[in-house]
Design goal:
The chain is mostly helical. It is built from one helix and no strands. Keywords: Coiled coil. This is V-SNARE coiled-coil homology domain-containing protein.
């Protein structure tokens, strides 16, 4: 049977090994967390760019729609004036 001091030494070695494993796993988790934060930041930036682009395109489309509306209204009003004057 192993003596108490041998058991203590063996348990201390096991404890040291577990501590090292914990440090390795902890560092891996920290690295993964940093990578996830970077990906999230990239995704967020990409999403912001897409939203800005969509907003810009949407504004352009609204502007074009308004321009078409006013052009049509102006043409119709001019035609009505011409029609009224000619008849």
């Amino acid at each position: 049977m192993p003596s108490c001091s041998e058991k203590i030494i063996r348990l201390q070695k096991e404890c040291d090994e577990l501590t090292e494993q914990y440090k390795v796993i902890s560092n891996k988790i920290i690295e993964r967390h940093k990578k996830m934060e970077e990906k999230l930041l990239e995704s967020s930036e990409s999403l912001n760019k897409a939203a800005y682009s969509f907003q810009k395109t949407s504004s352009k489309q609204k502007f074009r729609q308004r321009l078409r509306y006013w052009k049509n209204k102006t043409i119709k009003s001019l035609c009505c004036c011409c029609f009224t004057v000619s008849h």
